[in-house]
Amino acid sequence: ERESQEQPEPLEIQQQKERQEKDPVHVETTKGKEDKEQIDGNDVLVYTPPVAAEVLNKPTTEAKDEVQSTGVMKGVTYAGMVYYEEKGAKDLFTFTAAKKLDALIEFIKKEYPQAKRELNVYFRIASPYGFIELKFDAPQDEPFTGWSIKPRMTPCKVYQDDINNFGDKDYPLPPSCPISVYGSPDAVPTLNYSVPLEGVVRPVTLVIQASLRTTNTASSTRGASPPATVNLDRAKKIINDVL
Description:
Distance between the termini: 161 Å
CATH architecture of the largest domain: Sandwich
Largest sheet: 5 strands, antiparallel
Region (Disordered): 1-42
Helix content: 10-25%
CATH topology of the largest domain: Immunoglobulin-like
Strand order of the largest sheet: 5-3-4-9-7
Number of helices: 6
Order of helices and strands: HEEHHEEHEEEEHEEEH
Number of strands: 11
Radius of gyration: 38 Å
Number of domains: 2
């Protein structure tokens, strides 16, 4: 008699059994092929219901939470600052932004030592890899007759990747939006001009404040001098003595 010899299982079946022993809950199906198990040397088809396969493919609650955790609600908070410089009859206001407020302060101190820091705000960008935009056409609560408020770049946008890259080798300057402000002689004395930020999670509005400059030639930084009086008789006497 021949001795019955047990045929070794195919490698694919062995690997499948090992996976099922490690994780009996998940059943894998690849490209729609029918799974097989070998029982007593015979191949037996194993049927996996389509509903079960659909349930196994659905993301878990933990996966959904992980996706939400990287969304807008847990976005990065950035710092913005407005500073200004006097440029002759005009004022140059600049809005700039960075990841850290300290970095902005140190940059302004170093590069623009004469500039005056006005205000700082914190904001989050509404969409990843997006931008914020300064809007200069918003309705105003206070009159600004005689004032000119013009951004030096249009559209006046600050991009998120530029904010993130500030401080790197190729990004020595923070992104910024310079704004030229000028008041004509007949302008209202005080300017309070609202500039909303568009593209932020929570509403943020910048207010540009300026006062009309008065030019008085009688008073300068050196002080005023009284008009000189001339004694004609004394002057004539001096001239006669010299002659």
